[in-house]
Design goal:
Length: 73
């Protein structure tokens, strides 16, 4: 199962190897972030990944976190 980040990167046809090279984030960490839903994505990782794929970091954040909702009272 892919994470929201994995789906987003697949839509953008982004190369995980290229992202790893540009960001300094290991290939194994990129794979974990894109394949394991329990892995927590750090803000600095999201920001670097967005820069590496020439995307707006806010757009990436909004897409990756689209399923999050505020708690109901």
């Amino acid at each position: 199962m892919m994470t929201e980040l994995g789906v987003y990167l697949a839509k953008k046809s982004a190369s995980k190897a290229e992202i790893a090279k540009k960001t300094g984030i290991s290939k194994s960490r990129i794979s974990e972030l894109t394949l394991n839903p329990s892995t927590q994505l750090r803000v600095r990782e999201l920001y670097l990944i967005a820069l590496a794929i020439d995307a707006n970091p806010g757009e990436v954040l909004k897409e990756v976190c689209k399923d999050l909702k505020l708690a109901q009272k």
